[in-house]
Design the sequence.
């Protein structure tokens, strides 16, 4: 993602944060839509007792969700938007939240699971090319599975401000990186959940 696209994205969500405060709307979700996606993630990944990287964590809502569920995990959240990270750290002072731009700053740790949930929903220039680059880079830092959630091109409703991915295209991207891939296209209408695994048959469908 080039600097202009990054600046636009940071400004877009900073304005949403100013407008909506610490609510799901500030990161482009409805409360119900956010909850459904988080529930799906828990159904796909056994997170308890594992280390997690929440890439594009926003204001830390997924951390709050897993804590409410009683899941004990070693959590790290990163986001390019420093204002969102400040809110996350304020909401969850016991959590680990870092402002980091993966294009220019090195990620030195590895994690059992890496999660990208709705991070690339905003329709900006070259977003699909950025997805492939970032997934490939992040996959080097997972010991087990990387989960990528995005909007599907087969969604019954569309918003011109959002970007939609063809399931076959994301599968093609995933198979360039690993031979162990799971794609779920029916958990939520209009959403794709793509799992890139380090080992063949690492995860069985829930």
Sequence:
């Amino acid at each position: 993602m080039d600097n202009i696209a990054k600046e636009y994205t940071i400004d877009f969500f900073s304005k949403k944060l100013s407008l909506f405060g610490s609510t799901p709307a500030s990161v482009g979700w409805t409360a119900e839509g956010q909850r459904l996606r988080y529930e799906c993630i828990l159904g796909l990944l056994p997170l308890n007792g594992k280390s997690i990287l929440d890439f594009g964590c926003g204001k830390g809502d997924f951390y709050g969700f897993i804590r409410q569920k009683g899941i004990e995990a070693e959590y790290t959240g990163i986001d390019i938007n420093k204002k969102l990270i400040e809110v996350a750290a304020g909401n969850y002072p016991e959590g680990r939240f870092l402002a980091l731009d993966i294009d220019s700053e090195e990620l030195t740790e590895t994690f059992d699971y890496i999660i990208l949930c709705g991070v690339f929903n905003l329709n900006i220039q070259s977003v699909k090319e950025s997805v492939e680059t970032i997934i490939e880079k992040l996959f080097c830092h997972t010991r087990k599975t990387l989960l990528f959630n995005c909007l599907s091109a087969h969604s019954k409703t569309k918003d011109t401000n959002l970007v939609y991915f063809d399931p076959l295209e994301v599968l093609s991207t995933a198979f360039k990186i690993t031979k162990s891939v799971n794609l779920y296209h029916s958990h939520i209408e209009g959403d794709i959940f793509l799992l890139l695994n380090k080992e063949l048959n690492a995860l069985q469908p829930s």
Notes: The longest strand covers residues 142-151. Residues 18 and 128 are 28 Å apart (CA to CA).
